[in-house]
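User: Hey, quick favor. My workstation is busy. Could you predict this chain's structure for me?
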Amino acid sequence: MKKVGMVSLGCAKNRVDSENMLGMLCQKGFEIVSDPAEADVLFVNTCGFIESAKEESIEAIFEMAQYKKQGDKKLFVTGCLAQRYPDALMSEIPEIDGILGVAEYARLFEMMEAADRRERPCYTANGARFLHTPRVLTTPGYSAYVKISDGCDNRCTYCAIPLIRGGYSSRPFDDIVEECRGLAEEGVTEITLIAQDTSRYGCDFGDGHYMLPELLQAVSAIERIHWVRVLYCYPDSTEDRLLDAIQQLPKVAPYLDLPLQHIDDTLLVRMNRRGSADWIRSRIAECRKRGIILRTTMIVGFPGETDEQFQTLIDFVKEARFERLGAFTYSAEEGTAAAKMPDQIDEAVKQARLDQLMMLQQAISMEVNEARIGAECEVLVDGFDEESGRFYGRSLLEAPESDGCIFLTADRELTPGEYVQVRITGADAYDLEGEVIA
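Assistant: No problem, here it is.
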């Protein structure tokens, strides 16, 4: 039996691709190992979104390449960086035995067989976007991500995703529900629906009708599913009908991940973001009416951003009081329109603006969390923290891997994957404390 090791980098969508590849390999009799030294075959599933992600991917490839010195191992590189720079990777890193792009996973074994013949295959054409393959979950067994579409049509001027993953393609509705049902039968109780743009799901099925509300209803109807989350909605396709579904379906988290990037209308146009500042404010107001909490991301230092426009962003964040907010300095990505724009911002200015924004958000987060003290909520237990000596978990208001956690005091041993009733007893800017009451 051959052994396989995999390094998976980047977003949850990339993680799902890694899990599909591992499922295919296990079906062929491969054994998954965590120690690269034990592996006969090594995979690095890369991210190529921004410069820091590219650097991390390159470092991982070189690190795995070192293990080839220990014996006859094969090294394969997959994912976004492989799709974006296949020729450069092949020419500059001779240890790579084969490359597989983001839509070519169906050719996994074809690539491996070619490498066994001492060829160096490189498959980066447009193949099958969605595969009917088993998955090996790399998340805890009670929680899984499910990808509902691939690619993106938004063409934001700063973003390379359409260049890497192509245009928007919705996964067939029944395939998604079938996968969620199968995951539930295997013990998964929390499903997180993901895509580059979930709110546009179904727009390419014929009539242009957004079908995320119907999908949420169908997944919620699966008996063994306890919680359903949806991440990465785009403001202009976040309709009231979607917000109504989130509010009305009891298993669906009252939580909307709505990346906004900015609030200044001029910059939104330069970013090619559809939806004005007024429309964004209307989405926030409609969420607040329905008791939906908000997570967002912002970009500071976009080309041409003036001090006044940055102050407009600061004032907006003070006004909106997002429960969750992440921010990034603008990164010029090769091949994007924004990389060629004049008035690029100095890195020191970008960093100063980022620090100011995150200091503001830290204070808001602290106030939001303190307001939850005394409230009761259901918590999914995630594990035990050795440093604090306490179990920890998340409520419906904390998404896996991206938000803080709730540290738990209990008079019994807790089990990861169980749901408990908790009273919130303490707070800091990002995490909460609570006592188990049932």
